[in-house]
Design goal:
Radius of gyration: 13 Å
Strand content: 15-25%
Largest sheet: 4 strands, mixed
CATH architecture: 2-Layer Sandwich
Helix content: 25-40%
Distance between the termini: 20 Å
Number of helices: 3
Order of helices and strands: EEEHEHH
CATH class: Alpha Beta
Shape: globular
CATH topology: Ribosomal Protein S5, domain 2
Strand order of the largest sheet: 1-2-4-3
């Protein structure tokens, strides 16, 4: 995925994607990577839940037939907690906009 795919980044997120030939037109799949540098286990699990929820709210904007890996970067916990899910969805939408171009 990381070698053959393409990626786009923002300050807090990196999105890797790869087209699936066997699933053209099917719903996309998402994988999450939240490294230990992001925070404690509790913080990482909370971020994963928030990222999944924000991703689901943007499914209509996600190009189908691709595999995605969303990687959280260090420093995401504080703004995600203070600004909420709408901010996180906007961050994901920003990196998704780079996918479509």
């Amino acid at each position: 995925m990381y070698r053959r795919g393409t990626s786009a980044s923002t300050r807090y997120l990196t999105l890797h994607w790869f087209p699936r030939e066997d699933a053209v037109g099917e719903e996309s799949r998402l994988g999450l990577a939240v490294p230990k540098s992001v925070g404690t286990a509790v913080a990482r699990n909370r971020i994963k839940r928030l990222l999944r929820e924000a991703w689901r709210s943007l499914l209509s904007e996600v190009p189908p037939g691709r595999d995605y890996v969303l990687v959280a970067r260090q420093g995401l916990v504080e703004p995600a907690e203070s600004r909420g899910g709408e901010w996180l969805a906007a961050e994901i939408a920003e990196v998704l906009a780079k996918v479509r171009t």
